[in-house]
Predict the structure.
Amino acid sequence: MRILEGKRDAYALLVDEYKRAIFNLAYRMTGGHEDARDLAQETFIRAYINLKKFRTDKRFFSWLYTIALNIIKNHLKQKKHFKATAEKSSAEAQPGTAENPETGLLQDEMTLKLQSALQALTLEQRALIILRFYDRLSFDEIAEISRLSASAVKMRVYRALERLRVFMEKE
């Protein structure tokens, strides 16, 4: 990696490549745009400061996601606002883009229910669901990020999906 050779401009390219993914992860975990921006920025700052700790035999993406998840989890633990973020995300939800207004309203309603259900999960479960289904990572990639075995990731994702199903049925 050029950045490890002291090429600072190379880091800007990495930020451009991953900023959207990190922001989306932070937004889905917190439910707030402002928090997501701050947490994404903190992720890239912390990654830059700790570049010397990056192991070149690992994928940068996995390493960066691990940093982001740790920052986000710490943020959520400090603020202790798991329930409040569901309300906040409901207020910030964007209207549907469907041509039929009724269909758009139904999509908006489902999106809000899903966001609320995600906020009801534990931090770990929420992170695993986001990584698997929103970011479309493989179980092996998630295992590398979460430092769990692939089979443990599969089981925890299954359990999280089951909790989501139960919550969605209650709604």
User: Anything to note?
Assistant: The longest helix spans residues 8-30.
